[in-house]
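User: Predict the structure for this protein chain, please.
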Amino acid sequence: MTQTMKNKEITLGLIAARKGSVSVKKKNLLKIKNQEITKIALKLAIKCPIIDSVILSTDSNKILNLIKKNKKLIKLKRNKSLAKNNTPMLPVMKNAITFFEKIKKKKISKLVIFDPTSPLRSMEDIQNAIKNFNKEKPDLLLSVHKAQHNPGTRQLVPLVYEINTIVWIYSRKAIFLENRRIPKKTLIFKTPIKRSIDIDTNDDIDRIYYYLNKSNKI
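Assistant: Here is the predicted structure, written as structure tokens:
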């Protein structure tokens, strides 16, 4: 192994997709134009050239088998204790990193989260977010878009953003040392509204198809 490879910072992509869901039944297996949203996220993460490895964390065998085999992909069958409706994301992230580092004998530098419920994200979104993270070196970089309903008046309108799930990038240090979902040094990454829809209700699915029909995407 060369010295360059030893010092290489590992960027790990995470797709966390449990089989249960509250608002939309079997949400992570929902199909957009005949393709499961989890598979859409997986394919984009695997294709991204600046992500070294991708880990799929799920308690569902069906989700595990969405993509049969890929040299860049690691499959993690999540324990039931980490797949409940009220399970926080932080222990899921820790579990994924620990599993990867144990089997690969490599330490990651950052974790890029691909939430399946944002199927309109683009490769450009991901690559620009990672480049921004590498430049600014925050503990967390999270994606946002302009709020559609601004509480300010027309005369004095403050710029308000809504958090979305296109991309969240954590430093390894923040996940294990700060031990909270939103660490102190958090930066935002702006994304357009048309790609920022997060599937939480059936109405969101209708909105996704509206934008797909306009752009012929996916």
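The longest strand covers residues 161-171.
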